[in-house]
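Extended Data, panel c. Modelled sequence:
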Amino acid sequence: MLKIDAVSYHLEKQQILDDISFEAADGELLCLLGPSGSGKTSILRLIAGLAAPDNGTISINGVAVSSQSGITPPHKRNIGYLFQDFALFPHLNVMQNIQYGLTGVEKSKSLSRTRELLDQVKLQDHAEKFPHMLSGGEQQRVALARAIASRPRLLLLDEPFSSLDTSLRQQVREETIQIAANHGLTTIMVTHDPDEAMSLADRIVLINEGAVVQIGTPEKLYNHPVNKLAAAFFGNINKINGIVENEQIKTDIGSLPGDGLIDGSKVDILIRPEGIKISPAPKNAATINDEAWVCGIRYCGNSNLVRVGIGSWSEPHTHMEVSQLPGISLQTGDKILLEFDRNQTYVFPKT
């Protein structure tokens, strides 16, 4: 449905995007995920025709809308765009704001479509209100109704939930995604929140510094990151040093298989907090590695976050965070044993 092919873009002599390529299938919800300033919103603007790429091609339904041979104007791309700040007109009421998305449509059809959308976004009783009279969630629904009023095939969402209160955000985003799905829209959503991307997206395009880092399902990006940035982007992660000796990676808290790495090579090992298992150390047990200690425990509802120190109790040289389910009684100062979950442990060459 949407194809971005080798697109580059600069703004005021600054390179914003560098050889970006990805595709979105018909009806797919694709999240563009990355830190602030990574180029996510610029991609939306290029798709919408609000900016022109330096190189590459953008195609919608097999038709090139941005290329070296020409640029299709935004109003001819059949795209709905929900801006981060909603961009409602303060001097127009709810009904008029939605009708603005139907400019050029016969009045009777415009009125019928507007009433249909008011019903879908549950704002029938707010038709005559102005934007300042609405809550943040209601404003977002008006902006969504306007964006899909002309029945676009492609919907662009630029961090549409970031300004909403936490208690409201989940409800509004679920309503938004459901409405998009009911209309059969292909949706491209920008977010810098990995939890939001993981919970909503069919696939994620992870972007950093204007380049694609990794593309895949939430499960793939979480469990099979291609580099340290991808591994660390989805929540807290522990990092320890390792060195390969006799086909084993030696660390301060145990050994891992060397996976064909060259003896003597140094590696970074990233382990998710839930990827380490804690067990009490037997009294007077001999250890082959540095000792591990409980340095603190923080209650987090259905789990505890245990701060672990590696080394001597008085001056541990490394700290780690471990997510521990209830059931094991631990106290600050306890000596413990640590065990890797290999499926949540990622090894990368040290750079």
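The chain has a mean pLDDT of 90. This feature is highlighted in the accompanying rendering.
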